[in-house]
Amino acid sequence: MKKAAKITSSVATAPKHANRKTGAAQAHQDTRSNRKLTLTRIAVSDVGDTKKALIAAIRAVGLPGNPANVARVQELRDEFDAARRHRRLNQVNAKTTKAISALPAPTGGPAIRLPLGTPATRLIELRRRTVTHYAQQVFRNGASGGTKFTVGFADRTSDVIYTTNLDRNYDVYRGAYKGWGANVDLHQICVPADWRLRVERKGLALLGGLMTLDALQIEAPAGIELYAAVWASQGRGYAVNTDRGFIAVADSASFHSDTAEGAISGLLRKGRSAPTRAATIADMKSAVNAFIAKYTSYDIDVSLDDARRSGSCEYGISSWCASVGIDIRRAQVPMVELLEGFRCMPQTEVRRAVLGAVKRAKRLNRLPTTLDRNQTKV
């Protein structure tokens, strides 16, 4: 009997425990709903946007002003603002556009996004990116503190210029070196607004390692294009030099000079020095590594006169030497050193200078190689 009474008592108390749990869950749900409703009312009210104002408003309604409640109010405000904006846009679109009878079938490809800004703004940005792209190809950049290119547009040819400056960035180094300054190379380029039409589309952007900043075509003999131009060349370090003169162009050859007569005569001289033998022509078209492997064994010096006789202009010679780290004041450099520079910046004019030096040595009947010199030492 006692066991039966205990079983009956436990069965009777089971519904009471279940009712208590259900009531507690319902109370918790009501509390969460009331909290959400209260925070929503605060979000749509005219309470200030600062955290201090939100905390005061939350505490005024009896809720704790903890970061979670403040963040929730801010999220609700962002959602309400977005909904208002979409509602206004939908109202405007309904007035200005016609209803679409049927939407196009989805293609499964990525969504097409129109570029930001007006057409004029996008055109200016394209011009700046194009000029910067060519400048980065030919001039030294990338200091430890960063690089910055600034492109402006000139109304007159006299304003066309390329300048560089060095600045300091004190936010690069950390730890024991915090506070030390890192160099930043600043490039200021000023070109005509229609540079892409005047220069790039004519194939004059990069000629012989020099960047053409402006070019105006003038009268020239048949078969030659002559331009009154402004160009930039690499100087020592991050320096860039701006020069004004004339550029003569024929086929793939070009020549820079101070005068129109000098540009034309230099171009003709470069054409006369073009290789004619089949073996030499093959060297001009061979790969860089193959060219270096063939001529690195020649123990001769290549002089500035070899470069001049091969048709290179003074501006191109000085710019290439500065780009690869060869001091232009040296009258001549060993073949090995020149070929190492050629590996870094392979230009057709350098191939011609190398072939000219080899031809000169053969003409003088003295063409020692590094192998011959090593055997002599032994």
How would you describe this protein?
The structure is a single chain. The relative contact order is 0.06. 49% of the residues lie in helices and 19% in strands. Helix 8 packs antiparallel against helix 11 (335-344). It has helices at 2-44, 51-60, 67-96, 119-138, 195-198, 260-272, 278-285, 288-295, 304-309, 314-324, 335-344, 348-363, 370-377; strands spanning 147-154, 161-169, 182-192, 206-207, 210-218, 225-234, 240-250, 253-257, 301-303, 332-334. It has three domains: 15-83, no CATH class; 119-272, no CATH class; 278-377, no CATH class. It is elongated. The chain has a five-stranded antiparallel beta sheet. The chain has a three-stranded mixed beta sheet with strand order 1-3-2, with helices on one face. The chain has a two-stranded antiparallel ribbon with strand order 9-10. The chain is α+β, with helices and mostly antiparallel strands.
| Overall geometry | elongated
Structural class: alpha+beta
Topology, number of strands:
10
Overall pLDDT level: 83
Q: What series of H and E elements makes up the topology?
A: HHHHEEEHEEEEEHHHEHHEHHH
User: What is the count of distinct domains?
Assistant: 3
How far apart are the termini?
122 Å
- What fraction strand? 15-25%
Q: Which strands sit side by side, in order, in the main sheet?
A: 4-5-6-7-8
Fraction in helix? 40-55%
Strand count, sense and closure of the main sheet?
5 strands, antiparallel
- CA radius of gyration is 38 Å
The parts where pLDDT drops under 50 for at least 5 residues are 1-12
Note the total helix count.
13
